[in-house]
Specification:
By secondary structure, the chain is mainly alpha-helical. The chain is built from 4 helices and no strands.
């Protein structure tokens, strides 16, 4: 679901992953039509990094139990 949001409303993804400042910057970039594509690419990249970070936290958390 977040991937679809990343393509349609890139700035919103940053708010859902807890990066509001990046979301505001992305919104400013997205306001221009030429900036929409880089904003979408940035949002998809940030979303993939977020998922990777969550997997790492989950793996480290299970080892410490």
């Amino acid at each position: 679901m977040r991937l679809i949001i990343a393509l349609l409303l890139p700035w919103l993804v940053f708010f859902t992953i807890g990066r509001p400042l990046a979301g505001i910057i992305c919104l400013l970039l997205q306001i221009t039509l030429l900036g929409w594509i880089p904003a979408a690419i940035w949002a998809v990249y940030a979303l993939s990094q977020y998922k990777t970070d969550q997997k790492i936290k989950e793996a480290l958390g299970s080892r410490q139990i």
